[in-house]
Design brief:
heterodimer; A: mainly alpha; Amino acid/polyamine transporter I; 74% helix; 0% strand; B: alpha/beta; GMP Synthetase, Chain A, domain 3; 2 domains; 14 helices; globular
Chain lengths: 380, 419
C-alpha cells in the first residue's frame, strides 16, 4: 500500500492532466465562445475563484486527515451516502472520460484514419489503459509525471511558435461580450478546473498530508497558466473562434506552426504526444474509479473492477451518434456536470461533514467542561 | 499475470488488425498522387474549373498535360516534373472526386503549396471555396493564396521552374522572394480565412501572373511607370515563362475589388509593420532627371486610431532606416547637408505614397487591408459596441495624418567620389 503513496510533484501532475486533456480538445474554444475577447480576463478571474474555492476546500478537509470524499460521505450519511457518492463519482468520471476519448479518437480518425472504424481506435486506447492498470498505480503515476512534462512543453511551444503572428490587440474590447458574460455567467467557466475532482480523492494517497495544500495550489496555478496560454494563442491567432464554430481548435493552431522551412508539419509530433497524454489520462481515471469501488464494496482483487469500468467506458463511447452530440456532451453537459459534482455536491458533503465534526468536537468540549465543573462541585 | 499477457496479446492483435485494414493500406505513398498547386477558374459548362498540378515521381517524369471531364488533352514539353489535370465541376470536393475517378492514384493535397484563383472568379467571390478548403483536413493552412491575372489553368500550365527541378520547391521559393523584394506579401490560407471572418480588416492575397514571351496574356510594359509601381504582368518581358508575384489583390468581403502595385505593397508592409527590406528608386535631390536607389532595411510604423465625431482618425508615424546604393562620379552623398537633403526627399516621397495608399484603400476601395481596426477596437468596451460601429464600412469615412522620419545610416563601399 505504501507503494501507492505520491510525492507532491506526482500528485500535482495527476490533477493537472485532467485539465490538460480538456485543453487539448475544446475547452479553450468553449471559453472563447462564451466570453469573446475578454477570455483572458475570464480565465484569470476563474483561476482566482478556483483558488479561493480550494482554500475553503482545504479548510473543510482539515478535520479529516488522510480521508477522501468517500470517507467523508460515510461519516456524513453512513453507508447509503457513501454508495451514492461513489455512484455519482463513478458515473461522472466514466461519462467524462468516455466522451473525451471518443472525441480524441474521432480527431485521429478525421486526420489520419479516415476509413477506420472509430470504436477500433477507442478499443486500442481502452485495452492499453487496462494493461497499464494491471501494471499498478505507481507505474501510471510515474509515466504520467514524465508525460506531463512533455505536454507542458508542447503547450509552451504552440504559444511561442505563434508569437510572431499574434495580434495582441485582440484582447480588445476588454469586456468582450459584456460585464455579465465575463464576470457573472462567465464565473461558470470554473468548470475548466474540473480536474479538481482528483483533489477530493487524492488525500489517502499523499505521502505527506501537510503537502495537500501545496498540491492544490500548484496544480491550480499550473492549470491556469496553461489554460491562459492556450486561450491566448487561440484568441490572438484565430479571430473567427469568437464568432464561429470551430472544433479541434488547438490542433488548428499546431497546423499553423512552422519552424522555418525545414520543420513544416509539426502537428504530427503534437498528436503523438497527445496520444500518450490521453492514454495516461484514461489510465488514471480507470485507476481511481477502481480504487473508489474497491473501498466501497470491500473488494480485494481489483482486476474485475478494472475490466468492468473499461467495458462501461467503451459502451459509453458508443452512445453519441454524431459529432454534434459529442460536442454537446463535451461542452454543455460536461460543463454543468463538472459544476454540479465538483463544485456543488462534493462541496456540500464536505461542508456538512465539517459542521458535523466541529459540532461533535464542540459538544465534546462542552461535555468535558461540564464533567470538570461537576467534579469541582463535588470536591467543594 | 496470465490475464495481463492475454490482454497484451489481444492488444497486439487489434493493432495488427488495424494496421492491415483498409484504413491504413490506402495511405501508402505509392497509392497517392501529390498535388502541389490547385487552380480555380470559372467553368465553361459548370460553376468551376479546377486545375491540379500533380508532382510526378522522378522515374515517371515524362510530359503530359491533360484535361479531364469532357475536355480533350494537350501535351507539354518533355522532362516536366509535374502534370496539370483540369476538371469541370460544381464544387471543390466533387472536383477532387472526379480527378480521383480517372487517376490511378488517390489525390492527396497535403503538399499543396499554392491555391490559385483567377481574377474573374475572385471578382465573383471566393468565400465558399475558401471555407471548403479550410474545412479540408489535407489542405494545409500554410498553402499560399494567389490571385492570377490570367486564368489559373494557364498559370499552372505555363509556370515552369527555371532553376529548380521540383515543383514544390519552386513554389516554396517563389513565395519566399517577397522577403527580398517586398513587392508582395506571402498570404496563406489561414491568413486569408482569418481576414475573411474578421471584423478588424479586409482580406487580401498575392497578385500574380505568368510572365512570358509573345502571349496575349502578358500585360504591356508601361514606360510611364516607376520601377516599383508595376503590378503583375506589367514588368519587363522575360525570355522564359515564369511566375511573377507582384502586388496584392484586395478583397471586399470575399470579392476582388482592386489591386496594389509593387510600391503600394511596400508602403502597405511598412504601415502593417511587416516590412523586411526593399530597394526603392526616389527622384534625386541633386538632379531633376536622375534617380537615386535606396536600400531600406527597417521600417516601423506607430499607428493609432481615435474616433472623432463618429469618424476614425488614423495617425501613422513611420520611421525608416536606409542605405544608399547609388554612386556616381563626383558625388558625396554622405555629407551632412546632402544626407539631410536625401532624408527630406525620402520623407516627402514616402509621405506622398503613404497618403495615396491610405486614401486609395479607404475612399476608393473601402477595404482596411492594413487592419487599422485592431487599433480602433481599443476605443470600445464591449463586442456589441464594436460590431454596432461597423468598422469595415466606417473605414471609408476615415481621415489620416501620416508622417515619415527617415534615417540614412550609410552608403556601401564608395562613400565619396569627389576627387
Amino acid at each position: 500500500m505504501n507503494n501507492e503513496k505520491l510525492n507532491t510533484i506526482e500528485a500535482t501532475f495527476l490533477v493537472v492532466i485532467i485539465t490538460l486533456t480538456h485543453i487539448i480538445l475544446n475547452l479553450s474554444n468553449s471559453i472563447l465562445k462564451s466570453t469573446g475577447s475578454s477570455a483572458i480576463i475570464n480565465v484569470l478571474y476563474c483561476s482566482f475563484l478556483t483558488l479561493v474555492f480550494f482554500f475553503i476546500l482545504n479548510k473543510l478537509f482539515k478535520p479529516f486527515p488522510s480521508k477522501d470524499i468517500i470517507d467523508v460521505s460515510e461519516y456524513v450519511g453512513g453507508k447509503p451516502l457513501k454508495f451514492i457518492t461513489n455512484l455519482i463519482y463513478s458515473v461522472y468520471l466514466i461519462f467524462v472520460s468516455g466522451t473525451l476519448i471518443l472525441n480524441f479518437s474521432e480527431l485521429l480518425r478525421l486526420i489520419y484514419f479516415q476509413n477506420a472504424w472509430t470504436p477500433l481506435i477507442i478499443l486500442i486506447f481502452i485495452l492499453s489503459a487496462v494493461i497499464v492498470n494491471k501494471l499498478g498505480f505507481k507505474n501510471i503515476v510515474k509515466v504520467n509525471t514524465l508525460i506531463i512534462f512533455v505536454v507542458l512543453v508542447t503547450v509552451v511551444i504552440i504559444f511561442g511558435a505563434s508569437l510572431d503572428k499574434v495580434e495582441f490587440q485582440r484582447v480588445f474590447p476588454v469586456l468582450g461580450y459584456g460585464f455579465k458574460e465575463t464576470f457573472v455567467t462567465g464565473a461558470l467557466n470554473i468548470f475548466s478546473f474540473g480536474g479538481l475532482i482528483l483533489l477530493y480523492l487524492i488525500r489517502p494517497n499523499l505521502k505527506e498530508q501537510k503537502k495537500y495544500k501545496t498540491v492544490g495550489i500548484v496544480s491550480i496555478l499550473l492549470s491556469s497558466v496553461y489554460l491562459l496560454l492556450s486561450v491566448a494563442s487561440l484568441l490572438f491567432l484565430f479571430p473567427f473562434l469568437t464568432t464561429g464554430t470551430e472544433t479541434l481548435s488547438v490542433y488548428m493552431s499546431t497546423r499553423a506552426i512552422e519552424f522555418g522551412k525545414f520543420f513544416e508539419r509539426a502537428d504530427a509530433l503534437f498528436i503523438l504526444v497527445w496520444i500518450f497524454t490521453f492514454l495516461s489520462y484514461l489510465s488514471i481515471i480507470i485507476s481511481y474509479i477502481t480504487k473508489m469501488n474497491k473501498k466501497v464494496f470491500n473488494v480485494k482483487n481489483s482486476s474485475p473492477i478494472i475490466y468492468l469500468v473499461a467495458l462501461i467506458i467503451f459502451f459509453v463511447t458508443l452512445i453519441p451518434k454524431d459529432s454534434s452530440q459529442i460536442i454537446f456532451l463535451e461542452t454543455t453537459v460536461y460543463k454543468y456536470a463538472a459544476l454540479a459534482v465538483v463544485f456543488v455536491y462534493s462541496f456540500l458533503i464536505l461542508l456538512i461533514g465539517y459542521i458535523k465534526r466541529t459540532g461533535v468536537k464542540v459538544k465534546q468540549i462542552k461535555n468535558n467542561k461540564k464533567l470538570d465543573l461537576g467534579g469541582d462541585v463535588e470536591n467543594n | 499475470m496470465k490475464a495481463r499477457n492475454f490482454l497484451i496479446g489481444v492488444l497486439v492483435l487489434v493493432i495488427i488488425g488495424f494496421s492491415i485494414s483498409n484504413s491504413s493500406a490506402i495511405n501508402t505513398i505509392d497509392e497517392l498522387a501529390y498535388v502541389v498547386a490547385i487552380g480555380f477558374d470559372v467553368g465553361d459548362n459548370s460553376d468551376l474549373k479546377i486545375s491540379f498540378q500533380i508532382n510526378m515521381p522522378t522515374s515517371a517524369s515524362s510530359s503530359s498535360s491533360s484535361e479531364g471531364s469532357s475536355s480533350g488533352g494537350s501535351s507539354s514539353e518533355e522532362g516536366s516534373t509535374s502534370v496539370v489535370n483540369t476538371v469541370e465541376c460544381n464544387s471543390f470536393d466533387v472536383g477532387v472526386s472526379l480527378l480521383n475517378s480517372y487517376l490511378s492514384k488517390k489525390v492527396n493535397m497535403a503538399h499543396c503549396k499554392y491555391l490559385i484563383f483567377s481574377e474573374e472568379l475572385a471578382s465573383q467571390g471566393i468565400g465558399d471555396y475558401i471555407y471548403s478548403l479550410k474545412n479540408n483536413v489535407e489542405v494545409r493552412p500554410t498553402a499560399n493564396i494567389l490571385i492570377s491575372k490570367c486564368s489559373a489553368q494557364y498559370f499552372l500550365e505555363n509556370s515552369k521552374p527555371i532553376i529548380d527541378e521540383v515543383a514544390t520547391k519552386y513554389f516554396g521559393l517563389e513565395t519566399s522572394s517577397e522577403k527580398n523584394t517586398s513587392y508582395t506579401e506571402a498570404i496563406n490560407l489561414k491568413d486569408f480565412f482569418c481576414d475573411l471572418s474578421d471584423t478588424f480588416g479586409s482580406p487580401y492575397a498575392i497578385l500574380g501572373s505568368v510572365n512570358e514571351l509573345e502571349s496575349d496574356n502578358v500585360g504591356n510594359s508601361n514606360p510611364t511607370l516607376d520601377d516599383n509601381s508595376y503590378v503583375a504582368k506589367e514588368s519587363e518581358k522575360s525570355s522564359q515563362n515564369n511566375i511573377e508575384n507582384l502586388g496584392l489583390a484586395i478583397f471586399k468581403e470575399d470579392k476582388l475589388v482592386g489591386e496594389l502595385s509593387g510600391l503600394e505593397t511596400i508602403v502597405h508592409l511598412m504601415l502593417c509593420n511587416n516590412f523586411q527590406n526593399a530597394t526603392v528608386n526616389i527622384p534625386s535631390p541633386f538632379n531633376d532627371t536622375d534617380y537615386i536607389s535606396l536600400y531600406i532595411y527597417s521600417a516601423k510604423s506607430k499607428n493609432s486610431v481615435s474616433i472623432v465625431n463618429g469618424s476614425p482618425y488614423i495617425k501613422c508615424d513611420v520611421s525608416l532606416k536606409m542605405r544608399l546604393l547609388t554612386s556616381s562620379e563626383k558625388s558625396n552623398y554622405m555629407d551632412e547637408e546632402n544626407r539631410k537633403l536625401i532624408e527630406d526627399y525620402t520623407n516627402s516621397y514616402f509621405g506622398a505614397h503613404i497618403n495615396n495608399y491610405l486614401y486609395k484603400t479607404s475612399k476608393e476601395l473601402n477595404c482596411d487591408v492594413c487592419t487599422f481596426g485592431q487599433y480602433a477596437v481599443s476605443n470600445f468596451l464591449t463586442w456589441g459596441d464594436w460590431v454596432e460601429y461597423d468598422w469595415l464600412n466606417r473605414y471609408q469615412t476615415s481621415f489620416f495624418n501620416s508622417s515619415v522620419n527617415s534615417k540614412l545610416t550609410s552608403g556601401y563601399l564608395l562613400m565619396e567620389t569627389n576627387s
